[in-house]
Amino acid sequence: MPAHSAHTVNEAFDAVVARADDSMWIVTTSAEGHRAGCLVGFAAQVSINPRRFLACLSKSNHTFRIAARAEHLAVHLVSAETIALAQVFGAETGSEMDKFEHCEWREGPHALPILVTAAGWFTGEILQRHDFGDHVGFLLAPTAAQAPESAVRPLRYEAIADLRPGHQA
């Protein structure tokens, strides 16, 4: 078996993951009178019974600092048609601006900000936090949800691949 350099392995790994073209999510939260939200690409359902979802936030992200003090998160399904929403939550930083001044939102369960134009959403109690390197995974148990009204084409990684993040991971 030929030896592979870390550089070659990393490039190949990145290419494999990019081809999967995962759904993008927006996670919002609030704690101690502060609200925050960010675009998330590392997220997935991780159990059927009981239902569990893992949302990973970059440690350098403003939203992570608020989520570290929170008890709940809101996870929003973003449709491909609402890319402007993804740009606000992915290309801007809550350290420098209030993202919620640039979108429609309402207060939802657990006083979480719920994005009105999201295709669907759920809130989750944070059961555990896991350090995964430059991201922390928040294991969530669903507490409330709003299903999409119709078939939704979710926003995929490929649509935002060139988006410059507000914070580097």
Verbal overview:
It is a single chain. This protein has one domain: Pnp Oxidase, Chain A (Roll), CATH 2.30.110. By secondary structure, the chain is an alpha+beta fold. The longest helix is centred in the first third of the chain and has 15 residues. The strands form two sheets. The chain has a seven-stranded antiparallel β-sheet. β8 and β9 form a beta hairpin. The termini are far apart. The model has no long low-confidence stretch (mean pLDDT 88). The chain has four helices and nine strands, in the order αββββαβαββββα. Helices cover 20% and strands 37% of the residues.
Mean pLDDT comes to 88
Please give the radius of gyration in angstroms: 16 Å
What can be said about the biggest beta sheet? Answer: 7 strands, antiparallel
Major β-sheet strand ordering: 2-1-5-8-9-4-3
Helix content: 10-25%
Spans of at least 5 consecutive residues with low confidence = none
Number of helices: 4
Q: What is the CATH topology?
A: Pnp Oxidase, Chain A
Number of strand segments = 9
Shape: globular
CATH architecture: Roll
**Oligomeric state of this protein:** single chain
How many angstroms separate the termini? 33 Å
Comma- or semicolon-separated keywords:
169 residues; alpha+beta; Pnp Oxidase, Chain A; two-stranded antiparallel ribbon; 4 helices; 37% strand
Give the gist of this structure.
The protein is of the alpha+beta class and 169 residues long. Helix content is 20%, strand content 37%.
What are the SSEs and their pairings?
Elements: H1 6-20, E1 25-31, E2 34-40, E3 43-47, E4 52-58, H2 62-67, E5 72-77, H3 83-91, E6 105-107, E7 113-115, E8 120-131, E9 135-146, H4 157-160
Antiparallel strand pairs: 1-2, 1-5, 3-4, 4-9, 5-8, 6-7, 8-9
